[in-house]
Target: histidine kinase
Amino acid sequence: MKVSFQIKLFISLVLFFSGLFVLLGVYYYKDVGRQLYQEMSARAKIQAEEIAIIPNLRQSVADKDIRAIAQFMHKVVAHSDASFIVIGDDKGLHLFHSVHSDVVGKTLIGGDNADVLQGKSTTTIRKGGLGISLRSKAPIFDNAGHVVGIVSVGYLTSYLDTITLGKVINIFIAAVLLLVALFVFSWFFTRSIKKQIFSLEPREIGLLVRQQKAMMESIYEGVIAIDSELRIEVINQAARKLLGLSQPTRALRGQTIAEVIAPVPFFAREVMLENDTHDEICRFNQLTVIASRVRIMLENKLQGWVITFRDRNEIDSLSTQLSQVKRYVDNLRIMRHEQLNRMATLSGLLHMERYDDAIRYIQAQSEHAQELLDFISSHFSSPTLCGLLLGKAARAREKGVELAFDPSCRMDRPGCALGEAELISIIGNLLDNAIEATQRAELPHEPVEVLILQHEHELIIEVADRGVGIAPEIREHIFERGITTKRRGDHGIGLYLIANYVAHVGGSIEVSANEPRGTIFSLFIPETGNVLRPVPTLEDQNYAS
Model:
């Protein structure tokens, strides 16, 4: 049945006013919520700062007297409407929690303690042990003016939303009555219109455009749409913010992607035409991002691409840091294990009164350890790198593999384009892979040869093993994420990280067979990074994890 224009217009007006009221309701809800958040922020800040200056509490926190803190704070909590009150020390550890007493001694959650430990009061919205909350933190100073602890007073956002909803219900009743009146008005208004006009189509088009714009601006990730000639068609606010662009969107339209983002392999046309990619680590204008690229096809014809990217999140950084810490702890465990074995041997010789044998044993062990220590400390200036190499050497010996350092090894200045954390990750992963490959080879195990040489313009890292080598079926994919030659464990990320670190600074990697068996990894890293240098793409050279 054909619906008359009058009915159509009436329905349109009703929907319009309904939508308007919904928008006004959302605005009012958000405005009330914003005011409530401001009020509760001020209340939380005042409570935190007042608690932080109480003399008894300051002394108890300075002494880390958990029992005294708990006794005092329970009295304070009884007179506060806050969802929780937390006391922490200057190391970021719980001394008191008003809700969960079992977290005492554990690390404060949220990652917003740095400014407080510098003596500043802060108010943030973070996710903690009870959920997302609005919390204000104030530093606790001792008599000498040093920060000895943290006071955190917070209100759960669910509690604040409940208060806001109660305020909105009252206005909602009035809005419903007004909406009914508008329905009546719309009906009589549509009756006065007799002639049908063709005006809905432009309105629908305009509505779609506005919806697209609102959708783009509401996306947290950076979004850029480019045409087949690599010219920018759409770029959202998040993308401009991440890339540090001050120009408005209309000024960026029509520019090539190379004018906005420094040329990188990710935007090489031959790579983009080859295939789409997801969650690839790239470098956009000095910002490390995780980017995805998808082609836009219309009737089997390429129209362009949509690129989405986001700043590499804290979880990735934290995972990398935890991985490094795990390696350091593992190395320390191995060195401790070796030391205990040596001490047990020495203790046995002394108990048997074989003093000459004990002296010879001490001299032999001391000579070997001192020789390696002297070599590494004299050829490498970085204490972190020295610690890594000593730990890896000890770990290799425990597994029946020796590390043979080339006499020409030298790195006496921090001139590499990579940061120390990335350099440690690269060398550590290469050595781990070489040791594991050597273990899997037939006995006797030949040494893993290591060369770390710093020239005037580049750093050369070369690790050669006589292990099982790389199977032909995965040789072309060893730098892809999840590809590994290891038999067990959670692997497939080490070579991916290495390839990306090296590619980001314009370096290169060579992989060759170490006849008659084994593999040689050679890395060439420039002294200063240069992302403009034409580096093989991750797909072309398999430089993906």
Observations:
- The longest helix spans residues 5-52.
